[in-house]
Amino acid sequence: MTDTRNPSIGDLIEQRYSRRAALKGSASAAATVVIGGSVLAACGGGGGGSTANPPPTVTATASPTTTTAGNRVTITATATDDGSVASTSFVQVGGAAVTLSATTGLTTSFTAPAVTASSVIVIRFTATDNSGNTASADVNVTVGVGVIGFTAVAKNRNDVVTIPSGYAVSVLYRTGDPIAASTAAYANTGADTDFANRAGDHGAGFYYFGLVATGTGVDVSNSARGLLAMNHEGITQAYLHPAGPTSAGGVRPEAEVLKETEAHGLSVVEIAAGTSGFAPVQASAYNRRVTPSTAVAINGPVKGNALVQTAFSADGTAGRGTIGNSALAQTAWGTALSSEEKWARYFRRPPAADDARRTTKQVRALTRYGVTSTTGLYGWATVTGNSLYARWDAQATGASATADYRNEPNQFGWIVEVDPYDKAATVRKRTALGRLAHSGVATSNFIAGAKPVVYMGDAGENEYLYKFVSGTAYASADAGATDRMSIGDKYFDTGTLYVAKFANDGTGTWLPLTFGTGGLDAANATYSFTDQADVLTHARIAGDILAATPMDTPAWSTINALTGDIFVSLKGNDQRTPANTNGPNPRAYVDAPSAQVGNRNGHVLRMREGTGGLEGTTFTWDIYVFGAGSDLDATNINISALDATNDFSGPEGLRFGRGSNPSGLGSPLLWLQTDDQAYRDVTNNQMLAGLPGGVGDGGTAIDKTVTNSGTTQATRIGKAPGAALKRFLVGPVEAAVTGVDTTPDGRTLFVNIQHPGQNGTAAAPTSNWPDNQTAAAAGVRPRSATIVITRTDGGIVGL
């Protein structure tokens, strides 16, 4: 009889079927290997082999064997044989789905997935010898729900970025860095020019837009190559010129003003990961600057209205540029929504001279929006002979609105849409979303059949929260459109703008800002509205008339994609007194060394839509966390029981982890950033990571009464965060930490550090960051910069 050591055709078919089933992770395959949670080693056989030619001997081990979501797990195997091993493989056969890395020798790895309860991941290692004999070993890894996995960074006032142990930081993109092939490296002496082809100053909100590996198209899932679309909120004027700004006879030099204006706006820069991490692609065809001089289109209900007609655009359909941009959000069709916040301060309009030239209604509107500076912030309007600078003079000096720039302020304060993938696409100002000092902008999930919703905050003390509901239901096919700006026209040019009115009992109502309703009409004695364009252009006044709830300086907004809860940062309010507190803004106190009564430290609000979902008009709310020093009164000030690991002040930037990785699944991770003055005697500004729960997790009734200097205020508070909120980063001297996003896989975190050393001068800078992050850099001028943070073990940042 012949010795048949090779497997039969039937055996080969059976092996192929079994391995394909294992690759699919079928329930039947998993059931054959998971027995009481134990590891089965060297199971399986040679399919016809004999003791003279036994199958390989295999083992497989995991490190670690027990972990939580977001951590890296490494599987290491061995395979020995008296002949030779022909092939090896790793497949998942049980538990929540994971993605195995490319096999390196006898090693693979995966990121522990987000789970809502403990789950056992089963990975099978299989070796096959030259005779077709196989053997397998299964390894079990127990994965628990996500936790914040780093040790909190201590508060400090160091002039570097401080991050937790087990993390690495590098500098990616700095003020003045060239983004065109022919632009020279930035000397950082004040002599540099051509900011139209350089990174702007004061990087703020941004978003990572993925590119295909070749860099020639859209791939939202690519974590190795993409575009950063970034706001440049302002400038540190002292460091942009050789010896600081100059003025001769009260007139600014045009060359200096050109540099200052071009350093504002937005930038789009391509970045790619290499062996040393991410770096900008200087010569990328995608790289782009949008400055205050860039041509823009005015879209929506205000387009063509008399309120936006100027000497530049007599028909009120076009404008120039964007300025003072703060937060930035993304759409499902691949565009960026940028918020114009600090725009009013740039205009010259001395009320003593100009009020007499205006109607009572116009004076009311200009005053309400803060267009009252006698000089403008940097004196740009003093440059003569160029309308790019003359337009910053908003006085009514001509015979009509089309003979001067009296209406130029009405062209700012909008949400601006930009296509980062198409530098030729005209920038749009989306007037249906209202004119404010826009800070926060957050987009809802784009779900087929539901109307897109955008949440916004007006960044002033005692200003309001708003939301826009599109007039058109979303079609999922639009996510793949190539004419992305036309898709923006479809969803953002019509719809309803609402303002929020809160009740102290944890409920609230969205009030429509619609001409002809609620007193928003021509008969209103306070302010006579002409049409819907007037209502949208003067949304603040409309909110006043509707008695919206004044808030403690609304800043950024973000949405928990799993629960729909909206989180809003409220930076604080020096005008808040015990007599004018309300439920969502309940504190008025003194925080030494200041003697000022107010909400010095701010808080983060949570909202949940009621009947009708995101498109509805009712909501519930509570307060996720109160900012405070851990040394303050626990009963009425440090209500969230913050300690040395998580106390903070002045919350601004907010963003949840992306749903494409474990930081945005299960219990999504929230990044919370600060831009604060009140706590700088103790620590520089910071960024924290939290697992914040949801509205109502602190109770079901009005569960807190705050005492403020003898008065009381009922409010709603959430569960104290405890260890589910930790300080992740502390920034350098005099800097704000503002702007955060990750790659889709969550393994690379980008953070903006804004205006380090903002109180210094060219001759005496008060910070040397970022040059001093890795080496001494005495005397070097500071720059705003985007940093890159990774875990040294390759896991999900923050978990």
Automatic annotation (TrEMBL):
<dbReference type="Pfam" id="PF22352">
    <property type="entry name" value="K319L-like_PKD"/>
</dbReference>
<dbReference type="InterPro" id="IPR006311">
    <property type="entry name" value="TAT_signal"/>
</dbReference>
<protein>
    <submittedName>
        <fullName>DUF839 domain-containing protein</fullName>
    </submittedName>
</protein>
<dbReference type="InterPro" id="IPR008557">
    <property type="entry name" value="PhoX"/>
</dbReference>
<feature type="region of interest" description="Disordered">
    <location>
        <begin position="47"/>
        <end position="66"/>
    </location>
</feature>
<dbReference type="Pfam" id="PF05787">
    <property type="entry name" value="PhoX"/>
</dbReference>
